[in-house]
Amino acid sequence: MESPILAPTVQDFITKNIGVSLSKLALQKNPFLDIEWLAVLKQIEAKTKAKDKLPLWFATENIIYPSKISVEQTSSEKTAQYKSTLVSGDSLIDLTGGFGVDDFYFSKVIKQVAHCEINPELSAIVEHNLQQLKVTNISCHLGDSKQTLIECNSQWDWMYIDPSRRNDAKGKVFLLEDCLPNVPENLNFYFGYSNKILIKTAPLLDLSSGLSELKNVKTIHIIALENEVKELLWEIHKDYQGAISIQTVNLVKDKIEKFEFVYNENENLPNFGTPKRYVYEPNSAIMKSGGFDEVALQFNLDKLHKHSHLYTSDSVIDFPGRSFEVTKVIGYTKNEMKAVFSGIKTNITTRNFPESVENIRKKWKIKEGGNTYCFFTTNEKNEKIVLICTKIA
């Protein structure tokens, strides 16, 4: 790909200005005669976004970046790498290739990957970047992905789809039927070319809403990165009619927190009890899953309240979330609050509590920070209580 952006002087300028204020740079005179200043600024902006999200791309020479929005919408390397563990076989076609990060990692485990992209500029950028990354088993196909499927006329071991969540008429959307491509509408057509489909959706999509739009769902993967849910992955197998597995994953620095249960199968209720020596808060992927009773049952923990989603035990366990040792439990009363919180710093979390963290801080003049963690919550007797804790994990 011949582009003035790739000139060594331009690339050097871009690298030296990573993280510099764009508004400050915009006021400078364009030092390059054969390239628009805005194009240089956009490369700096997008590459800055890629520094933490896409470290391999950032560290590779002569990478060309698309718009900042394309970089923002692409998978991070960490989530893409995990995603590649979910597929196997000889062939995969990505109907919505985008910047190609997912396909790069799919290509590590799949012999042949097809990258489909309707945007000519983005398709050319990905093809160029794959050469810089020395990837040889990804083919780039420009044009409408449905047409590409028809023209290739092949059976694929996997199909991957990341529908665009922007609609020209409706703006940002979350229902699958409003995304492009419309997966629910085209599902039977897609099954003509692959028996296994992996669909990525926004984390805001409600699980029951997605299940009402899709059929043959075998597994829903909820992927969080550093305790922030980044994406939902819907694994669909042609003609599958069995139980739906929910698999939650939180990718943290030194470990992967996993939790799994069967959707809507559990009929048992957990035990409810008063706070014991240790208390646990599930990670964000589990919170998104809604498997609150399953957490208590699988780890043999008591819940504090049906809606509090905090768990407790007498002995400490390895838990997929944050773990705390309880040092004191008080009632949410004026006297007890004044006696404990007069002029101290603490970290506050609310769970099933009628007041916001902001209101609590303002009302009781509590500053943020320190090594104490407080949970403002409700116990099984519907009493408002405060758990004063120290963090252990």
Automatic annotation (TrEMBL):
Q: Boundaries of each THUMP-like domain copy?
A: 321-391
Q: Would the keyword Methyltransferase be found if you checked this record's keyword annotation?
A: yes
What GO terms describe the biological role, i.e. biological process, of this protein? Answer: methylation
Q: Name one GO molecular function term.
A: methyltransferase activity
Going by the UniProt record, its keywords in alphabetical order are: Methyltransferase, Transferase
**Sorted alphabetically, which InterPro entries does this protein's record hold?**
PG_1098_Fer, SAM-dependent_MTases_sf, Thump-like
Keyword Transferase assigned? yes
Looking at the record, the residues that make up the PG-1098 ferredoxin-like domain are 278-320
Pfam families in the record: PG_1098_Fer, Thump_like
State the protein's name.
SAM-dependent methyltransferase
